Amino acid sequence: MMSNATKCTVLGGLIAATLDIVYAFVFFGFRGVSAVTILQSIASGVLGAQAYRGGVLVALLGLVLHYLIMLIIAFVFLAAARRLEFLVQRPVIGGALFGVIAYCVMNFIVVPLSASPGAFRFDPVVVPAGVLVHMFLIGVPIALAVRAGLKKS
């Protein structure tokens, strides 16, 4: 049987993943990038550049990987919250700070170490938007969910 903390962490990760991918579809859709291409870019972390030739099945792999990555991020927050009371006591601030850390880890460690052909490029619109999304659509929902789970435990 799953603990309340685990259930709430999974829920927070799923909510954050959904908010993030919807943001990506809308934001990059206005910039001319299709949802399939966005999902293929996620899959390219495992498959490399050939992911962009893979069609809908590769896009589905990208979607699964996106949710898996977000669940890992949520459980990293849970582990941190069990050690740092601040994250539970101030979930909006703690979640926002965690979101910035998650953004940096993804863009400066995970993606460069992956098979993805993409490299970080500073774009004065994309980067601030990405940081804000990681703060408020990823970090804060995860923090609030984890807090709820830890309070019930």
Strand content: under 5%
Count of domains:
1
Mean pLDDT level: 97
| Largest β sheet strand count, sense and barrel closure | none
Termini, distance in Å? Answer: 13 Å
Walk me through what this model shows:
This protein is an all-alpha fold and 153 residues long. The chain has one domain (4-152). It is built from 6 helices and no strands. α3 (55-83) crosses α6 (126-152) and α5 (91-113) packs across α6 (126-152). The radius of gyration is 16 Å and the shape is globular. The model has no long low-confidence stretch (mean pLDDT 97).
Descriptive keywords:
single chain; 153 residues; mainly alpha; 6 helices; 0% strand; globular
Topology:
Elements: H1 4-29, H2 35-47, H3 55-83, H4 85-89, H5 91-113, H6 126-152
Give the structure's gist in a few sentences.
The chain has 153 residues and is an all-alpha fold.
